[in-house]
Amino acid sequence: MTLDDLPTPCLVLDLGILRQNLAHMAAAVARHPGVVLRPHLKTAKCVEVARLAAPDGGPVTVSTLAEAEAFWAAGYHDQIYAVGITPQKLDRVAALPGVNIITDDVAVARAIAAHPGPLSALIEVDVGEHRGGVGPDDDALLAIAAALGPRLAGVITHAGHSYAGRSDADMAATAAIEHAGITRAATRLRDAGHQVGIVSLGSSPTALHARTLAGVTEVRAGVYMFGDLFQAQIGTHADADIALTVLTSVVGRRPGVLLLDAGAIALSKDRSTAAPGLRDDGFGLVWDLDGKPSLGRVVIERAYQEHGVAVGAPDLPIGTRLRVAPNHTCLTAAAHEGYAVVDGGREVIGTWARINGW
Amino acid sequence: MTLDDLPTPCLVLDLGILRQNLAHMAAAVARHPGVVLRPHLKTAKCVEVARLAAPDGGPVTVSTLAEAEAFWAAGYHDQIYAVGITPQKLDRVAALPGVNIITDDVAVARAIAAHPGPLSALIEVDVGEHRGGVGPDDDALLAIAAALGPRLAGVITHAGHSYAGRSDADMAATAAIEHAGITRAATRLRDAGHQVGIVSLGSSPTALHARTLAGVTEVRAGVYMFGDLFQAQIGTHADADIALTVLTSVVGRRPGVLLLDAGAIALSKDRSTAAPGLRDDGFGLVWDLDGKPSLGRVVIERAYQEHGVAVGAPDLPIGTRLRVAPNHTCLTAAAHEGYAVVDGGREVIGTWARINGW
Known about the structure:
The structure is a homodimer. Chain A is an alpha/beta fold. Chain A is built from 11 helices and 17 strands. In chain A, strand 13 (299-303) and strand 14 form a beta hairpin. In chain A, 59% of the residues are buried. The interface between A and B is large, with 55 and 55 residues.
């Protein structure tokens, strides 16, 4: 079977590029002795990808309980479920020994401590993104640790604001803030008499650009595996390192415009590249069937539910197959049930399922 | 089981509101004698919803071949697959007698005519949206009809530009343009000696606001079933008529801000309400567990993969359950595998599966 035989739209994952991206990140983390990579599987949501990114059942990060359960069943028994837990979700987690949870709330920490199951939790620390977490110097840090008691497994942060960086220097600066914040939190907890086994940080940009990770035990990153147009623009990788594309067919044509069967569901409505200082790639860039930009700059300017409107396109017959590079690979992948896997050519060498839902 | 027992995030569909929305549209179409409603199932993608929206196996519209196959298996043998067909997809359609296809291309029309299967096609007409279709006065209209020969089943258009309207008068004006364009196309084809059985138009706004549908055989609409914040703002229905919400849990809190476990996947990144002239509802509005706006105006301002950041919120404990009204119901529903069905209360009276994928 080749890319010419697949129903469109569908996801195409290039194994060679994936392997290269994994090696690139592994090398970046290996610069820091004693620090392990805990890949985030939120992008791939795929057991076959996990086996490449985290061989030997190595530590992983997940974003949903559905992922936690599926990867646990696949032999991944050292996980962090990296979204703030609720008391109502503790029973599901307790059935998965080795799945660490996170919290930034004293009441939840008490519920974790009181639960009869084998729970283990990290305290979420905010180093400036202001999404979740307590500040490294916040009193709540010590209160949560006290409430968790022996169930405290460590501290965790995510410098998601690294995505606002536009240069390697920006990324390195955010990485330094991330590093300082999480090690400060660990130090305060240790000074108060707590064991802090795990000191976890990461985002794809900071993982690549961190100058020191002294005192950190592990790095988390996910989007680096597949890459996307946004990550390429902020310097995480090159355009040619985008491993995930959406195979699509031309379903309409008029001068300069192609209508594609990859629309808002197949691509997502993510507009990451519309951020200040970036080149706006619309809802994605259209490449040829080999995943190369041979058509020139063809941008998906509008995305309806099942139609993408690509402008700047040469005239091509209806039925022509093309591949769309995504703005934000995590969200583009989310609407699809699996991956058609290729390795640099058009031959489909495998079909890998995704773990969607919650 | 009640809404307190469900894993979050998940979709909640209110059956009472759904039935009311279906009755409202049925009444709007019934104003036009001889015109039938061909509901578009692209929003619901659900057999149980189809049985309510199109009883007795009545005509339906679909947006993917996966929908066509599933609804055909469920007894819906009069369908229009309303995305321009490609030659490569004809074999799949030919296995589903009664599934009409659409095209706006002479080469595709020839492929349809030459296919050995029982195919039947409508010509897609552009009445101003400029997505797909040939103009009513375009020479290509007659050329496509000639190429289709006896496989010509009719003409079809969609005035999607009605969504740019901001008043009933705007909608009525677009509906008049839609009506004039599709009947003009039908007249030209008949004058050229073709049989034109189906004259199909529609969008939720134009279906509700059309003043005349003389010469039209059927109206298509889909989003009216569930409604959303965008449709409420453009007058398709009231806020209280939104039948679909996302059940979510509070996973983080700080003054004025709640972090929810409904993020960019569970809600979609659709920003329809950011359009000019509308009130920007961010990535959705947060209502209470009963689906009422009792919290005041709480807006999801940022959406990360699995986190929604809601601002303007009262302080609520972690684990509190809320419901998010979507910007664009079709896209919000797309990431979910099914619906938890309620009927005005918190009791879950059913779980209905969705037909996702392609």
